[in-house]
Amino acid sequence: MHTNTHEYGIEELVEKVIGAAYEVSNTLKCGFLEKVYERALVRELETRGLTAHTQVSYPLQYKGVSVGNYIADMVVEHQIVIELKCGDCFTNEHLAQALNYLRASKLNLALVINFQKPKVEWRRVIL
User: Fold this and answer.
1) Among residues 11, 64, 87, 93, which is most buried (max CB within 10 A)?
2) Is 91 helix (H, G, I), strand (E, B) or coil?
3) pLDDT tens digits, residue range 17-48?
4) Which of 103, 104, 99, 100 is nearest to 124 (CA)?
5) How high is the mean pLDDT of the chain?
């Protein structure tokens, strides 16, 4: 397993994550809860040599005072926030949520991945 976060360029990471998401979707099909896809995606990413952490908490501050935490579904190689969905379609709220995760995490790229359809859907969100 790779532990060097600088080993992959961001575009190569995106390709690997999306490839893993398609593999999970093709294997499990649609209809499960998000947690099932989260566990399967972590496993698939690990088999591809990537490090993925789930339920990553980022403190949210207002004028220097902690006002809560954002908890991202997954962070891959400490570079990409992954937000998993199992819904009929992407909504503005999903994309706004991903932007908030980026602001809280100080990362620049999130992928919102929807496993609800027969073919996995995904969107790139950039801060």
Assistant:
1) 87
2) coil
3) 999 999 999 999 999 999 999 999 999 999 99
4) 99
5) 92
Name the residue ranges covered by the structural domains of the chain. 10-126
Residue partners of 122: CB distance under 8 A and separation at least 6: 18, 21, 111, 112, 113, 114
**Residue type, position 37, single letter:** Y
- Which residue bears the tokens 């919102």? 112
Q: What is the pLDDT of residue 3?
A: 44
The pTM for the full model equals: 0.89
Q: Which fold has domain 10-126?
A: Lambda Exonuclease; Chain A (3.90.320)
Tokens of 89: 């379609």
List helix spans (H) across the chain: 10-28, 34-47, 92-105
- Please state at what angle helix 34-47 crosses helix 10-28, rounded to 10 degrees: 120
Residue-wise pLDDT for 42-57, tens only, equals 999 999 999 999 999 9
